[in-house]
């Protein structure tokens, strides 16, 4: 909901500013201490209340049917992920009761890893969260309707907004801070009076319109009644048999099953599992998560919480259990993964049926457990690779949606849009390939072995040397395998076996977030990756299984630097399909003005593959030819031909032509557009529902290898736009609502944008700004359409990136 925001700004000289600030800090903290003492005297000391009621009670039912949907659509849209303001996660009853914390999860300068504060993992009741520094946003003293509202931060924030709505401005003044790294106030109830006096406009929802009168009253009545809630921990009867079946598979006693289960857990732990073959309740799919437990199936789950999924569980035997997801489904963290009989049969066929022996289970020492090529060397390489590419979008989605809510440190290592394809598993399923991976395991060590508090420079040198050894060995192996270009054709690329649409992917970067979609979306990209087994596995263990959002600066910096290696490896695999002279030219274009160390690396280890391509090119533009060949080869499984194609927009042909013109805007004109524009077009035909589209800005760079100089490497003259059918991305920058009949005029105006003033003039006609009175009505309609169109994949959008333009 609201963001408890930044401190006051004083227009004083620097000399006067510091002592006055200290004095005010002492006064405010003294007032807060006095207020807390006074509250204790008047209303008793705070004690967590029993707010979560049995689901069959009338109060719980009212919460589920009336209050919870309102909280989701007005509060969860800003308070759901790790970067929820003040760590106030309102996506579950337990999260609301847990309250807020002044410490930031995202703090890139910390020297020591922070304590983890993951919902449902790191504490299991409100009292335990109080001991971890979380402050109540609901009243925990004397329970009366008056005290419940007056001693509730939540109620006071809502009331503050009602009393002081947004000013009558299209664009809010500079006094409002919408940056992700803004200072957050996070007032306790003892500090609320001072907050209300200092920041009267900063009530909930922060920087957005106030709630409608009836909505506000519904929440105030609920708070006055003690905020009764119900938790989302019910397992539908139809799902119990499925859970039993999968838990049985995952918890067999033989070593082959145990090692397979450990492998799957380390790839599923961020997933939302579901059973598509069972009936849904009230049309809603129930999602589940997998946890490690001290207890076997048939007993109550006793979760094991560790910082990483491969950390030592501290017990002699781990059991893998399936629990309901207890939070609202939000798009940013939603990774649905189906558990079906077909999937179970496929896992058995790849991991269990083949003749091989698991002689002993691997331990959990960091240098072993963080390296999947060592930890799982007894599992067939082909089984592991088949699993990962069979579900490639889900696998790669892990580092897009999985453990982070903002990822600039990791994401400024990738281009804004690129295609991803995979080495055919039949090429990987060769004894000499498996032997090569085994021989290189010690050179493919992962940064997570250094755990969450690390020194980046020392480890960077160590890992870069090992990566160099691996690349030299890989180039020697490839030079022998593809001698004279043999097999070095598009036959090397997996075609999805003719039916699997995971074979073709597009990754879009949106500055500090990203999206992975099925299909080769849009025009051919500047770069592309060809991914093999070792690369996709290391990406997962670098950015998902081994990444710690609570880690120190060194851990996060080392993760980003290591990802440079992996990106260049994927790019190098793609370049190997081009003629040698083209490889060098493309690499020079992709890494313009790169520093000398990187240039040496590129010209040496990574680019030492000398065999010619086995493809006979017909033109002077081999990269464009190769992209066309990939598009043609993957056409049978390319979802760009269906889901994202503008041909599927249900508008008149001329309207679609007008929309296509938007995507042709390039260069500095494109730079004026934000990362993600969500567009709702209202058709002239009233029988057709509003059409949703996404306009994405692709920011061009000279290179993406500079850690702290991204802006210096930008090439705005090469920026472009991509327009797709449907919504791509979790964090909209701006909303447009356009009538189909107005499209010709709107597109013509959009093509004439040359300045910020021009862009704002366009928004005056089409935008539903954050200040618009109809903002919440539009928001409800957009989210409802998104989930209606994609009932499994859809989740609530996140408004923490909405612009103020």
Main attributes of the structure:
disordered N terminus, 805 residues, 12 strands, alpha/beta, 4-stranded mixed β-sheet, 4 domains, globular, 29 helices
What does this structure look like?
- The structure is a single chain.
- The protein has 805 residues and is α/β, with parallel strands linked by helices.
- It folds into 4 domains: 211 residues, no CATH class; 132 residues, no CATH class; 226 residues, no CATH class; 145 residues, no CATH class.
- Helix content is 40%, strand content 8%.
- The protein is built from 29 helices and 12 strands.
- The strands form 4 sheets. A 4-stranded mixed β-sheet has the order 7-6-5-8. Strands 11-10-9-12 form a 4-stranded mixed β-sheet, with helices on both faces. Strands 1-4 form a two-stranded parallel ribbon.
- Strand 9 and strand 10 form a beta hairpin.
- Helix 14 crosses helix 20, helix 15 packs parallel to helix 20 and helix 19 runs parallel beside helix 21.
- The chain starts with 13 loop residues before the first helix and ends in a 16-residue tail after the last helix.
